[in-house]
Amino acid sequence: MPNEPRGRMASFLTATEAARRLGIKPATLYAYVSRGVLSRAKAADGRASLFSAEEVERLARRGRPRRPAGVADITVESAITEITGDSLRFRGLDATRLAVSRTFEEVAELLWTGEFGSAREPWQARPAALAAGRAAQAALPAGTLPLERLQVIVPAMAATDPLRLQLDQPAVLAAGRNVIAGMVDCLPSGVTTDPGQPVAGRLWSRLCDRRPSSGLLRAMSAALVLLADHELAASTLAARVAASVRADPYAVVGTGLGAISGALHGGASLGAESLIAAASGPDDVPRVVAEMLRRGEKIPGFGHFVYRGGDPRATLLLDLVRRAAPRSGQLAVADALLAEVRQKGLPEPNIDLAVATLAQVAGMVRGAGEAIFAVARTAGWIAHALEAYTGPGPLRPRAVYTGRPAADGPRRVSLPMARRWSPRRGDQARGHSPVAPSICSRSKSAWPRCRAYSSIMCR
Fold first, then answer.
1. What is the per-residue pLDDT across 438-451, written as a single tens digit (0 to 9) for each?
2. Set 304, 319, 335, 432: catalytic member
């Protein structure tokens, strides 16, 4: 086994051996890896995991790590996305490189099948799905945000697909292409677009009435790729749980859309948009930031749970926007915001700020960042659904009850004194053993039932 760590037999343990030594389940072992408690190496086959025997022994002697309050570990094995402290990989390939070399459709196929696949026709939704989705969103009030429209479009499209519960891979792939194309093409647009365009160009026309420069369109395509998946983010976990109980692909996407709208998830880009728009210019940024901090509010678009040293997706996307529109006033505001936050020692920017910057520089409609996030992440939800459909069954976490303890024991039946029964010596001698009161078939009164004869003992 030349590719395995040296001294495998003496220095490394398999996952089963490590879990047994620590007295935990394999799922908990992988949770320790995700929390940085244990390190993991790959075996020669690239799939099996190996653990340092010395590290496992040290942890076993120290005892189980204490979990911070409010932190929950849910670990799922997946071959789709790998996240480290400073990188993101799709099927083993660097996502930042894919973002500048591949289209969104190609990366979606990679997430779904593990291969880029051959050239295909442009993704198109079925006519019936388009008609239903457009009619559903057209009934919404003016000013409805794009993400809110998507949350209505998807279930309307689902109703037109009689084969949506067919969960084999070819059917799910077809549903994935249909739902993504429909989400984009059902959004209202003030300009005519070529239906043969890639998804990035069609989505641009739904969110912005200006023609894109080649540089900004490239940034839009990169944003879709960078946001296509991010392991078990909140919306992906929700979508995967739905898929684990065999919900259809449209229901999986609808579940993800519900979670992604949260202010601590995809909705954070809307807050970052509002932050950039609140400043009249670069010189006004310190006032805007100071007012938010004075109100005790968190600055949206900064810091990340995984990328402590900075979000590599944000670094790339901001760089693409700077190259595409170096003289943009909104870009100057965003750069002033970055400088102000760094001066105060706050965390580095994340992908939410980068997408919001793209939307503001391009002059897109309010809430465009959320829509870009949702359309892109749909590819990841479908990928995780495909894995879950072939999995063992429902993903069912358990809760640790912290509520009020039981105030009393089992309830006892109380009978009036006149109806209470006392066993006679003869009954006990014959092995009669009365149990809980029952109803006598003759007198309709409550009397004990005899275990010996399974009958009512009437006296």
1. 555 554 555 455 44
2. 304
What predicted TM-score, i.e. pTM, was given to this entire model?
0.76
Write out the residue range of the structural domain in which residue 449 sits: 417-456
Q: What is the pLDDT of residues 11-46, one digit of tens each?
A: 889 988 888 888 888 888 887 887 778 888 888 777
Q: How confident is the model at residue 65 (pLDDT cuts 50, 70, 90)?
A: low
Any catalytic annotation for residue 432?
no
Q: Is 352 a catalytic residue?
A: yes
The catalytic residue among 161, 185, 248, 352 is 352
Query: Which helix H or strand E contains 178, and what residues bound it?
Result: helix 169-185
One DSSP character per residue, 328-345 reads -HHHHHHHHHHHHHHHTT
Residues paired with 89 in a beta bridge: 82, 94
- What is the C-alpha to C-alpha distance for residues 393 and 100, in angstroms, rounded to an integer? 37
Residue appearing with tokens 């065999």: 246
pLDDT tens sequence across 69-86: 444 567 788 999 999 878
Please list the residues that pair with 41 across neighbouring strands. 50
Q: Are residues 271 and 236 in the same domain?
A: yes
| Same domain, residue pair 64 and 103 | no
Q: Which residues, in sequence order, are bridge partners of residue 42? A: 49
Taking the C-alpha atoms of residue 362 and residue 154, their distance in angstroms, rounded to an integer, is 26
CA torsion sign for 218, 219, 223, 225 is positive
Domain of 35, CATH number, reads 1.10.1660.10
Element (H, E) at 50: strand 49-52
